[in-house]
Design a protein that fits this description.
Blueprint (H helix, E strand, L loop, with lengths): L17 E7 L5 H14 L6 E7 L5 E3 L17 H4 L6 E3 L8 E5 L6 E5 L2 E4 L10 H9 L8 H8 L1 H10 L7 E4 L1 H6 L1 H15 L3 E5 L9 E3 L5 H11 L3 E5 L4 E10 L2 E4 L3 E3 L10 H6 L12 H17 L5 E8 L5 E7 L9 H8 L4 H14 L6
Parallel strand pairs: 1-2, 1-7
Antiparallel strand pairs: 2-3, 4-5, 5-6, 8-11, 9-10, 9-11, 12-13, 12-14, 12-15, 15-16
């Protein structure tokens, strides 16, 4: 029986929908996820929804946390963690695996499990592996609980830069030159992999970007200008992911565009431009989150280029079978053509993050954006769709 055909609980009709905001996680983007959760918790309309904050610790424990978004902010250049916010060092939250029940349970060693009530929708604000990559989405599908954002397939495609590029190419979207080095190749034929990288550098020139295939927030990315920095860059990428990419430098302006799924289909925001960051080699983690390099919204690229990047952003959204929201990142080259770099199925979502800023300039304020995403998730059934 599909989740939408399950018997409805009469008591549910008498209460506000309950939102579980799930954040943190096991990836290197744990802290950014906590910051995002704080912003979402501050903005959910409490007259319309009840809220249950659930944090996932760095070792994967689902913890009950206090509803205190003021503690979820970057302080002294340091991101917060779920371990600091958890109400217990041992207690855990368990989601149901029976789609006939959405009852969440809290357990703690030596204590009787405590029912926390039903959850009607999950707002997952996890970034990176073990949360944004389809794993959490698969659990929620099994549980029959609606959730904000992309489904299993789109989340997995959006997390893995190799397969993202393969999908884009198959749909005719322009991508830049790249090569992929998989774990088995590196472990069994490192010499051959190095030769492929050398051939790539010979064809496309330096500098090159070495990046983990399945990470975000610019973690693990290194710009290298010669073979001299290659070993350290590969080691840094593999510290985050045993599969890594080598990309050539794409010269051009960095342009971003948000996509939001409304009742009548996906719509694109006004685009933003990320100007050159003089204090950094590229738009890395420090520039994004610590030094707060500001983007220009809307991007001063003219009406024709704006329409084109909006069209490409929606095409990328559809190509990867996305739902809910996406931030699509492009390079606008000197010849006036766009090349897509990547999509992010759960982009940075603080009020100063680029995705909400682009929608703010498009006429959708932050709290309204959160509300639209929750409404869309509640409309959408789990299962095949």
């Amino acid at each position: 029986m599909s989740s939408e055909n399950l018997p409805q609980n009469p008591e549910k009709q008498l209460r506000k929908p309950r939102v579980a905001v799930v954040f943190g996680g096991r990836s290197s983007e744990h802290g950014i996820s906590v910051v995002t959760a704080g912003a979402v918790l501050r903005s959910i309309d409490r007259t319309k929804y009840d809220v249950l904050p659930i944090g996932i610790t760095t070792d994967g424990r689902w913890a009950l946390t206090a509803d205190e978004p003021e503690r979820m902010a970057i302080s002294d250049r340091r991101t917060p963690s779920v371990d600091e916010l958890a109400e217990s060092a041992e207690g855990g939250v368990v989601l149901p695996v029976d789609p006939g029940s959405r009852e969440v349970v809290y357990t703690e060693p030596g204590m009787v499990p405590k029912a926390l009530g039903e959850v009607d929708v999950v707002f997952p604000v996890l970034h990176g592996p073990y949360g944004e990559d389809g794993t959490l989405q698969g659990l929620l599908e099994l549980s029959g609980i609606p959730y904000v954002g992309a489904g299993v397939l789109a989340s997995a495609v959006g997390q893995d830069k190799e397969y993202m590029k393969r999908v884009f190419t198959s749909f005719g979207l322009p991508v830049g030159p790249y090569l992929v080095v998989r774990p088995r190749e590196w472990e069994q034929d490192e010499k051959g992999a190095r030769q492929r990288i050398a051939d790539f550098a010979g064809e496309h020139g330096w500098p090159l970007f070495i990046k983990p295939s399945r990470a975000g927030s610019s973690f693990g990315i290194t710009k290298v200008d010669s073979f001299e920095g290659l070993d350290e860059a590969i080691a840094e990428a593999r510290r985050h992911d045993p599969k890594f990419l080598v990309e050539s430098l794409l010269r051009g302006r960095e342009i971003e565009c948000g996509v939001l799924e409304l009742e009548d289909g996906p719509r694109a925001s006004v685009p933003a431009e990320i100007p050159p960051v003089t204090a950094h080699e590229f738009y890395d983690f420090e520039a994004k989150y610590i030094d707060s390099a500001a983007g220009i919204v809307p991007a001063p690229i003219g009406d024709e280029a704006t329409a084109e990047v909006q069209r490409l952003a929606v095409e990328a959204f559809e190509a990867a079978s996305c739902e809910g929201l996406v931030r699509a990142d492009f390079f606008l080259q000197d010849n006036g053509e766009f090349v897509i770099n990547e999509i992010n199925t759960m982009p940075g979502f603080t009020p100063i993050s680029m995705y909400p800023r682009m929608w703010q300039e498009s006429g959708v304020a932050y709290a309204e954006l959160v509300d639209k995403l929750l409404e869309a998730a509640l409309r959408r059934p789990t299962g095949l769709r």
